[in-house]
């Protein structure tokens, strides 16, 4: 077995660290084999592709956005007619066309709530709020669900958020009335869910 005097030799494994200047201590260099370089390039390429494919990096074209808005409008009409299952399917299709359509997620939450599927309604309201934290319909609906479930602190937190985004909105006034006089003070303590 032979050892190099000024460095390590891992050339059999595809790497080596040796001295740049055999007489100068502390000067080290690393060399990758061709196979190792290809692997590193492949890995960097995959990381770059993943970053470009992320939902936040993808832009929705105008045609898809327009289709999503039309489908959401049809879904709202179905909701008005009481056809909640049809509305649900239309909202889902609107979301496929544009996953960034917060209004479609809110509508999907409303369709599930109308069908007494509260767990799903909460899920879709939260998704809508992750896209648009100022979606007053989702904020109000989620706070109302919290209030109905006996989570007064969650409802009050929702009211504070509503007041921050839309102090004069009907949703804000309605939730304030539902909570009673104790929640009308914006500085009243409550914890966020």
Overall description:
61% of the residues lie in helices and 7% in strands. It is mainly alpha-helical and 193 residues long. The protein has a three-stranded antiparallel beta sheet. α2 (62-81) packs parallel to α4 (102-114) and α4 (102-114) runs antiparallel to α5 (118-131). The longest helix has 20 residues, at 34-53. The model is unreliable at 24-29 and 181-193 (pLDDT under 50).
Radius of gyration (CA) equals 28 Å
The DSSP helix count reads 8
Strand order of the largest sheet: 1-2-3
Portion of residues in beta strands equals: 5-15%
- Runs with pLDDT <50, length 5+? 24-29, 181-193
Mean pLDDT: 80
- Briefly note the structural class of the backbone: mainly alpha
Shape: extended
- Assembly status: single chain
End-to-end CA span: 65 Å
- Please give the largest β-sheet: 3 strands, antiparallel
H/E element sequence? EEEHHHHHHHH
Helix content: 55-70%
Got a strand count? 3
Give the helices and strands, then pairings.
Blueprint: E1 8-10, E2 15-19, E3 28-32, H1 34-53, H2 62-81, H3 84-97, H4 102-114, H5 118-131, H6 136-148, H7 152-165, H8 170-179
Antiparallel strand pairs: 1-2, 2-3
Helix pairs in contact: 2-3, 2-4, 3-4, 4-5, 5-6, 6-7, 6-8, 7-8
């Amino acid at each position: 077995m032979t050892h190099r005097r000024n460095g390590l030799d891992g050339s059999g494994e595809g790497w080596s660290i040796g001295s740049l200047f055999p007489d100068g201590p502390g000067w080290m260099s690393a060399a990758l084999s061709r196979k190792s370089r290809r692997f590193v390039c492949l890995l960097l390429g995959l990381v770059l592709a993943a970053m470009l494919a992320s939902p936040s990096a993808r832009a929705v074209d105008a045609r898809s956005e327009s289709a999503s808005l039309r489908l959401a409008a049809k879904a709202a009409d179905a909701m008005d007619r009481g056809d909640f299952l049809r509305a649900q399917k239309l909202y889902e299709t609107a979301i496929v066309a544009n996953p960034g359509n917060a209004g479609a997620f809110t509508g999907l939450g409303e369709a599930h709530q109308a069908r007494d599927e509260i767990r799903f309604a909460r899920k879709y309201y939260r998704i809508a709020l992750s896209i648009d934290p100022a979606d007053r319909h989702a904020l109000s609906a989620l706070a109302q669900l919290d209030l109905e479930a006996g989570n007064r602190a969650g409802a009050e937190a929702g009211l504070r958020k509503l007041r921050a985004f839309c102090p004069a909105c009907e949703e804000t006034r309605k939730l304030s009335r539902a909570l009673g006089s104790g929640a009308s003070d914006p500085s009243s303590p409550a914890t966020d869910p």
